[in-house]
Amino acid sequence: MIPAPGSALTDLAMRLLLTIAPQTANNFAAADSMLVGQLMLTLSQEFERAVATRMQDIDELRELFTDAPAQPARARFATATTASLHLRDVNHLHDEGMRLLIELHTEVEQTDADLNLRIWHFLRAHSERHKFN
Amino acid sequence: MILVRSRTEVRPHKNRVCGLEIWTADWSPFLGFAATKSGHCGADSSPRISAPPIPPKKLDSLDWLAGTIAPQGEHTVSTPLSAIGDALVDYLSAHWHQDITCTAINQIPGGASRETFRVKLCVDGSPLGVILRRDPPSSLIDTERAHEFNTYKAVFGTHVPVPEPMVLEDQHPAGLLRPFSITREIPGCEASPALLATPPFVQHRQQIGERKWTIMGQLAALDIDTLALDFMPRPTHPAAHELDYWAQVINQDSLHPQPIAQAAVRWLRRNLPDTPGKLALVHGDFRSGNFLFDTQGDIHAVLDWEMAHIGDPLEDLAWSFDPLWCWPEKTLAGNLLPRAEALAIWERASGLSVDRQAFRWWQIFASMKAIAIWISSAEDYVNGTTKEPILAYAGWPLIDRQNRILLDHLSPESQYLYAEATL
């Protein structure tokens, strides 16, 4: 088994982009090949970090929620665990946290400047974590 | 010659994911569908297309791909493409009652909502280049085709250059199978925004920019009462109308919660601008990549009017300034001109004065609308039947970039690295 699938995916993408696509005679197919290659490069980035970035988001959301007004759903989120480390299960908890974040942001953005600012800090960090090169 | 067989229903906002057709133009330089690469009337009757040799260089971005790879060579097209050319000849011969042959056909890559073909015809011995845009197999957007076509008809002949609309077919003709529209080809032009940063076009950036924002201003100056735009609704509050539509797209199509996009929607609701003093025809996607320019720096046509509507004239100007259209460049709007200069050109051409507070609203709206389109595209990729890679591309890098742009607009401690820092 290849231990670093992300790197392998990058190598496959480069093969598609630099070897196969240039030899693809049909323009439309060549364009598709190039775009698929680009997407594979994007996916190779996401493949490596997907669980880690989401788990870090979840940790930071929990910390953020500790300073938020008490609310049952946020309290449940503080102790919730992912069913597994499969991405679909991590996504499930991550989505729940982000839904709660939207609710909290809506609730406090006009009334609690400090918490609002912390939420924006989280959003910036979240965006940096998830950005593609 | 215009052949119109479609009714013109008023559903202009339905499924605007077609904004992704921006990429049709973006891929053009290395895919070899420039008009000058096609065959000629009276030449070999076998349809031909160009083949793209791609040098082994470092692959940094789509911009690199679009900007550096030139087409060379030709080969015979596959049977399905030839069959489309044959079916088009049969259709037009029957409707135009003229002797028509197809001398070349190639498919323009990248469109998410239409299959687009460049077709060289010979009509009674005279060459005619046309652009055929056919619905994809799974399309639900049966009215946007008519909407765009009828907008072309309304604008054609004004100061705003558009391709000549020729045929609109809303039935399922034999051979061509699906509804389509045809416009006259404008040869010898390019559309890719990546080319604007490369020779010979880079020397003409100033001129192209002046022309772009002059045309945009002239569009804003058009009197909508003199144009045949009865098929477009006239909103009483354009900003609220547009915001409602795109906020709904975000709510309906998000595959994941979108906290930045939702924060933008709330900000926009809290800060709605006044109704504009003048309603205008708004293109809806007027940016680098959606107009045809030549090597002399002239613009010959503004394309892709599927999202056209009646609205606030500031909307197009703000959309054209979105940082995504010049990414990662920060200072040149649309990779052409400094924003302040572009704004001044637009003001002169339109005769309108930009209210800076309202304009800030429209710039943030533009970024929100863009992320709504990317969100909708990603949803379409996952849940729809069309698995175009371009839809998936919207779902990753484009949502990521647009999130960072919105953060730059809205975060309380923003450094304003993008649009607002340079205006």
Task: Lay out the secondary structure.
The complex is a heterodimer of chains A (133) and B (423).
Chain A: H1 5-20, H2 27-66, H3 72-79, H4 87-108, H5 113-130
Chain B: E1 3-4, H1 22-26, H2 28-31, E2 48-51, H3 62-68, E3 72-76, H4 79-96, E4 100-108, E5 115-123, E6 126-134, H5 144-155, E7 165-169, E8 180-184, H6 205-221, H7 238-253, H8 259-270, E9 280-282, E10 291-293, E11 299-302, E12 309-311, H9 314-320, E13 332-333, E14 337-338, H10 339-350, H11 356-383, H12 389-410
Parallel strand pairs in B: 1-7
Antiparallel strand pairs in B: 2-3, 4-5, 5-6, 6-8, 7-8, 9-12, 10-11, 13-14
Any overview of this molecule?
The complex is a heterodimer of chains A (133) and B (423). Chain A is mainly α and 133 residues long. Chain A has helices spanning 5-20, 27-66, 72-79, 87-108, 113-130. Chain A contains five helices and no strands. The longest helix of chain A has 40 residues, at 27-66. Chain A is elongated, with a radius of gyration of 20 Å. With 423 residues, chain B is of the alpha+beta class. Helix content of chain B is 38%, strand content 15%. Chain B has helices spanning 22-26, 28-31, 62-68, 79-96, 144-155, 205-221, 238-253, 259-270, 314-320, 339-350, 356-383, 389-410; strands at residues 3-4, 48-51, 72-76, 100-108, 115-123, 126-134, 165-169, 180-184, 280-282, 291-293, 299-302, 309-311, 332-333, 337-338. In chain B, the strands form five sheets. In chain B, strands 1-7-8-6-5-4 form a six-stranded mixed beta sheet, with helices on both faces. The model of chain B is unreliable at 1-79 (pLDDT under 50). Chains A and B meet through α1, α2, α4 and α5 of A and β2, α8 and α12 of B.
Keywords for this entry:
heterodimer; A: 133 residues; mainly alpha; 5 helices; 0% strand; elongated; B: 423 residues; alpha+beta; six-stranded mixed β-sheet; two-stranded antiparallel ribbon; 15% strand; globular; disordered N terminus
Largest interface: A-B, 43 and 45 residues
Oligomer kind: heterodimer
**Runs of chain B with pLDDT <50, length 5+?**
1-79
What overall geometry of chain A do the principal axes of the alpha carbons give? elongated
